[in-house]
Amino acid sequence: MSQQTLSKAHRKITDLSWEPTFAEVRSRTELPDEFFTLFLDPTRTYSCAFWTHPDDTLEQAQRAKIDLALAKCDLRPGMTLLDVGCGWGSTMTRAMDTYGANAIGLTSSRNQYRYVRNLLVDRLVRGRPYGGVRQQGWEGFDRRVDRIVCIGALEHMSRDRYGEFFDFAYRIMPADGVLLLQTVVSYDRGHLRAQGTRLTRTDFAFLRFLRETIFSGGQLTAPTGHIPKGITEYAEDAGFTVTGIQKLGRHYTTTLEYWVSALREHRDRAIELAGQDTYNAYLRYLTGSADYFRRGYIDVAQFICAKPGAATRLR
User: Fold this and answer.
1) Average pLDDT over the chain, rounded to whole?
2) I need a labelling partner for 32 at 20 to 30 A (CA). Which of 40, 182, 266, 274 fits?
């Protein structure tokens, strides 16, 4: 995508005055895979990308994000990696190809499960490292693993389950286990005022729209804090040491601009697949989120959460 195209997308993104209707929005689990392929990159990676060079394509930036995350896991050949919220399998396959690791993915989506299962069957035939996928939540997972990645799944949970998730991750890994968590984070009003950011009624209306229309049941919290508790504190309460936090918010703004441009380009097909209301809702979600990241109201960060046997090595 050219800088000129991104500039046009930016101008459209900042215009949030239009009022679409959302009477019949289909849930994410009801949407066909093709709807997402209209705006995602060829690997179908549905999370913040990472640009190491301004001329990188979205696919290159998504691969760079996955490499950034896996490099922080202290992953070695023969280890087993659990991918919580594995999507369409891009992180799993990268771990198998680059590190010689075995990988297990968890997803609640039937479509994603079938796609990854078929992808892994093809790899097994070609003698690649072991890969498996389960259509289930992390709550029912009972195997021991060496490392865990969770990219973009935590923000779909309510905060009252964060503690349970970190306890689960700590329990199923060995003494040198590492959890790499990438999640969207938010800030309280005091922090935003100190940064010169003011919330308006339009801002609160957009947040309500996200909770009610796109991410039902999900909540965000701050990177650190006590009231409410931050991600770091949830991890530490479970026994982890947080050895690194890297914020990627500006990269998510760019990612969303690519997605918006692609979805608009495929407008007719998107409406054919999902309906006008769903197209309107996703356009508002993507454009509004890009604006929020740009203004610093929300951010996205990678957290390295290490058990005692790995904490000193990863500092």
Assistant:
1) 87
2) 182
Report the CATH number that the domain containing residue 276 is assigned in CATH. Answer: 3.40.50.150
Token reading at 169: 């991750």
Residue 165 lies in domain: 3-314
The mean per-residue pLDDT over the stretch 196-209 comes to 76
- The residue among 3 and 109 whose pLDDT is bigger is 109
What distances in angstroms separate CA 168 from CA 27, 111, 231, 236, one per listed residue? 28, 26, 15, 13
Per-residue confidence band for 127, with pLDDT thresholds at 50, 70 and 90 = low
What confidence score (pLDDT) does residue 296 get? 83
Beta bridge pairs of residue 303: 181, 245
pLDDT-above-90 percentage for the chain: 65
Tokens 């990678």 belong to residue: 302
Tell me the pTM: 0.88
Range of lowest pLDDT (20-24, 63-67, 267-271, 280-284): 20-24
